[in-house]
Amino acid sequence: MSKETPCISVCQMDPRTNLCFGCGRTLPEIARWSSMTSAERLAVMALLPARMAEAGLAPVEQPQTTNAR
Question: CA-to-CA distance for 61 and 4, rounded, in angstroms?
């Protein structure tokens, strides 16, 4: 996860909570993300772990890459 976005490229919305399964943002937050200030993005990102836990959404882990030989 970068410092500027919580996106982990798992872009699917949970129909029950209207939160992204990957990052926990709402569609309006995702749509406004690029126009938010850094402070606004950081404020939203601070809420995401608790928001996902409250919604019962487990954080999705990105697959680890390995060097195949």
Answer: 18
